[in-house]
Amino acid sequence: MERYSVITEKLKREIVLLRGSGCVYKKCTFCDYHVDCLDDDAENFKLNKSVLDKITGKYGEVEIINSGSVFELDKQTLEYIKKVCREKRIKTIHFEAHYLYDGKIPALREEFKEFTLKMKIGLETFDYELREGVYKKGIPVREPEVIAKNFDEANFLFGLEGQSLASMQRDIELGLEYFERICLNLMCDNSTSVKPDKRVIDAFLKNLYPKYKDDDRVDILINNTDFGVGE
Hints:
The chain is α/β, with parallel strands linked by helices. The protein is 31% helix and 20% strand. The chain starts with a strand and ends in a 10-residue tail after the last strand.
């Protein structure tokens, strides 16, 4: 499992994959990412410290992810993140969180007020019926402005049955309207019953990838390890 990498294109930053107590939601039908967890704060901190110690601060910006939300990291890890970022003169930290933690984000920003926080949501799509009826994301609101209120960035998932070229285009356009940055993830085969749809992926690669591949506000992950972390 690779847990440290450097992103050298578009928004240059270091990225670390930490381990927490695990996603408290665990209902997304397409996701098996939540298996990277351990219900032992001491062991998690030991691992996370070893990963965080690899940060150099070379770009002054770091993205910190885990198999769930930042709120599922232990307190020691959160304090160590602050310590490392101070020492390495990192100004901007990117965190991820599920929408169920929406109300806790203002307090997290206050806790990390010496830094600029960029919060990312795993939105997957603005199509409410697809997102909640099929993906089971647990985001009980439809309005883009409400979803984006406490978030700066969003992940989208493309390449599944039920999507079309038009729906993906709409997601990208709305994503760029309501968020500072977006990340487009193509569905990769995993242990869940949800499988990639080759026709949808081909449509994306032919029509949308060339259009957005050089957009500085759009990250595109054709493989889920393209950021250099994970397995």
